[in-house]
Design brief:
Its cofactor is Mg(2+). This is ADP-dependent (S)-NAD(P)H-hydrate dehydratase. One of its GO terms (molecular function) is ATP binding. There is one protein chain. By secondary structure, this protein is an alpha/beta fold. The chain has one domain: UDP-N-acetylmuramoyl-L-alanine:D-glutamate ligase (3-Layer(aba) Sandwich), CATH 3.40.1190. The chain has 14 helices and 10 strands. Strands 1-10-9-8-7-6-5-2-3-4 form a 10-stranded mixed beta sheet, with helices on both faces. The longest helix is centred in the C-terminal third of the chain and has 22 residues. The mean pLDDT is 92. It binds ligand NPW and adenosine-5'-diphosphate. Adenosine-5'-diphosphate binds next to helix 11. The site of adenosine-5'-diphosphate (ADP) has 17 residues, from helix 11.
C-alpha cells in the first residue's frame, strides 16, 4: 500500500482556495447550512457556524432544536436560525419540518455537529440524503453514526461528501473495534473512503485524509491543545465554508485540517499550549488563511 503524502505548504500552494471577486455579495461568497445541536450541547452549532463565517462563507444558517434556537440567534447575530420542532426527547424532530427548502438555498450542508441522539440523527440523515444529491456535504459527529445504511447513496453522489470521524466514529462506520483500527489507521481510513465513496478525515494527533480514489495524506502539525470539546465542530465549519466557496472535496478537507491545526498553533503561542478554548481558534482563522493564500 502506498505511503501517505505529508500535507505541506507545497501541496496547499499548488491547490489554492477559490477567492471571491471583490464585487461578490454575501450569497456569492458561499451559503452554509449547519444542521445539528441538541439540548445537552446547544452551543456546538455556534462553533461550526462561526468557523464557517471565519473561513470566508458569506451567509450561514443554523437549523437546530427549537428550545435553543432563539438563544443561539441572540448570541450570534451574524446567522439566521431555523428552529426545528422538538420531539419528546428534546432533540430535532426529523419528520415535522421543511429542511429540504433550506438545503435548496445552500451551497454546503454540514450535518451532525453537537448532535447526541443517534435515533434523531438517523432520521434526519435518512431524510436529507434524498435532498442533498447535488449539494456539497460535510458529515460529522452523530450524523456519522447514522450513515452506515446509506453507503450506496453516498457512493453515487457526483461530488464526494466529506466525513470527519474521530477514532470512535470511524470504528462505528466500519463496524470494527477502535483498538484494531489503531493498529493500521491508514488502511482503515482508505477502506472507509472507498466504502462510502467519500473523502474521509480521520482526526487525531496525526490526522489522515483519504479520497475514494485512494489518495492518502497525513498531517501532524497541530498540538494536544486541540484535543478539547468543540474543536471538531470548528473543523467541520471550516470544511463546509471552503466547499461552499467552491473548493473540491479533497481540497476542502485538506485545507480545513491545515487551517484548524495552524489556528491551534497560534492559540498555543498566544494563550498557552494547554487550556485554550475551541472558540478561541475562531479568531485566528482569517489571518492563517490569508497567510497561506
Ligand atoms: N460533550 C461535550 O462536552 C461537548 C460536545 N460537543 C460536541 O458534541 C458532539 C459529541 O461529542 P461528545 O464529546 O459528546 O462525544 P464523543 O466523545 O465524540 O463520542 C462520540 C462516540 O464516539 C465514541 N468514542 C469517542 N472516542 C473514542 C475512542 N477513543 N475510542 C472508542 N470510541 C470512542 C464514544 O464512545 P463512548 O466514549 O461513549 O464509549 C461515542 O460513542 C461533538 O460534535 C462534539 O464536538 C461540543 O460541541 C461541546 C462540548
Ligand atoms: N493530540 C492531538 N494533537 C493534535 N490534534 C489533535 C489531538 N487530539 C485531537 N486533535 C484534533 O482536535 C480535533 C478534535 O475533534 P473531535 O474529536 O471531533 O472533538 P470534539 O468532538 O470535541 O469536537 C480534531 O481535529 C483532531 O485532529
Amino acid at each position: 500500500m502506498a505511503e501517505a503524502r505529508t500535507l505541506d505548504g507545497a501541496w496547499l500552494r499548488q491547490h489554492p482556495l477559490p477567492q471571491p471577486h471583490e464585487e461578490s455579495d454575501k450569497n456569492a461568497r458561499g451559503r452554509v447550512l449547519v444542521v445539528g445541536g441538541c439540548t445537552m450541547v446547544p452551543g456546538g452549532v455556534r462553533l461550526t457556524a462561526e468557523a464557517a463565517l471565519r473561513a470566508g462563507a458569506g451567509k450561514v444558517r443554523i437549523a437546530t432544536v427549537e428550545s435553543t434556537a432563539i438563544m443561539i440567534g441572540i448570541v450570534m447575530p451574524e446567522v439566521a436560525v431555523l428552529p426545528l420542532a422538538p420531539d419528546p426527547k428534546g432533540e430535532i424532530d426529523a419528520t415535522r419540518t421543511s429542511l429540504e427548502l433550506e438545503v435548496d438555498k445552500s451551497d454546503c450542508l454540514v450535518l451532525g455537529p453537537a448532535m447526541s441522539c443517534a435515533e434523531q440523527a438517523s432520521a434526519l440523515v435518512g431524510r436529507l440524503m434524498q435532498a442533498v444529491d447535488e449539494t456539497p456535504l460535510v458529515l460529522d459527529a452523530a450524523a456519522l453514526m447514522a450513515i452506515c445504511d446509506h453507503a450506496g447513496r453516498l457512493r453515487e453522489r457526483r461530488l464526494p461528501a466529506v466525513l470527519t470521524p474521530h477514532i470512535g466514529e470511524i470504528a462505528a462506520l466500519l463496524g470494527d473495534d477502535a483498538d484494531a483500527i489503531e493498529q493500521d489507521r491508514a488502511a482503515a481510513v482508505r477502506r472507509c473512503a472507498e466504502r462510502f465513496g467519500s473523502v474521509v478525515v480521520l482526526k487525531g494527533a496525526v490526522s489522515l485524509v483519504a479520497a475514494p480514489t485512494g489518495e492518502l495524506f497525513s498531517y501532524s502539525g497541530g498540538n494536544v491543545g486541540l484535543a478539547t470539546g468543540g474543536s471538531g465542530d470548528v473543523m467541520a465549519g471550516i470544511a463546509a465554508a471552503l466547499l461552499a466557496r467552491g473548493a473540491a472535496p479533497l481540497q476542502a478537507a485538506l485545507w480545513s485540517v491545515w487551517l484548524h491545526g495552524e489556528a491551534g498553533r497560534r492559540c498555543a503561542e498566544a494563550i498557552g499550549p494547554l487550556g485554550y478554548l475551541a472558540s478561541e481558534l475562531l479568531g485566528f482563522i482569517p489571518r492563517v488563511m490569508e497567510r497561506a493564500a
